[in-house]
Amino acid sequence: MARAAIPPTRSNYLRTQRRLERARHGYDMLERKRQILVLELMHKVEAARAAQEVVREAMAQAYAALEEAALSAGIERLVRESCGIAADHKLQTSVHSVMGVAVPEISFKCAGHALRFALTAGAGGADEVLGRFHDALEPIVRLAEVENAVLRLAREIKRTQRRVNALEKTFIPDYEDTLRFIGECLDEREREELVIIKKIKRRRESARYAAEGRNG
Fold this sequence. Notes:
By secondary structure, this protein is mostly helical. The chain is built from three helices and two strands. A two-stranded antiparallel sheet has the order 1-2.
């Protein structure tokens, strides 16, 4: 807001004062929102770290089983037998709001995993491999959920911080500076008017005394 573009009038002073009050109120609201989002983000980051560890362990076990089965039966046989496997897993997504941020929730329904390979015809350890990868699905879904929440919260915190900074560094100081400028102008104008009133009063008194002297 350009200070010079605003005439120093009483109405502009009151208007700027209201804008300053709204800006300060907005700053307080946004700062509280930012703090709540930061706390929520910290919680989600911890949850993401825990979920990463669970996924890392589950995938390590799955790949260890895969390596053992590949050494036992050969990778080509494992690939050939896995081509006929189909699973009806279901994912449903929803959101809940955290200070206006749509945070995702994922509902995962696992199809279950029975033995798929015959003990004699199947590749050795194939069912173990399938089971291990199957067990990793739920942790992977939870990890995807919390990592997506972390990204959304971090993005909103960054956007909120920009708005907080704009109010704190630009709008509020500008309004305060404008109020100070208009207030100084109004005070100066009031002093000038008071001086003029005193001069007029003295002149009237002088004129009255002069009139009384002539009449006396």
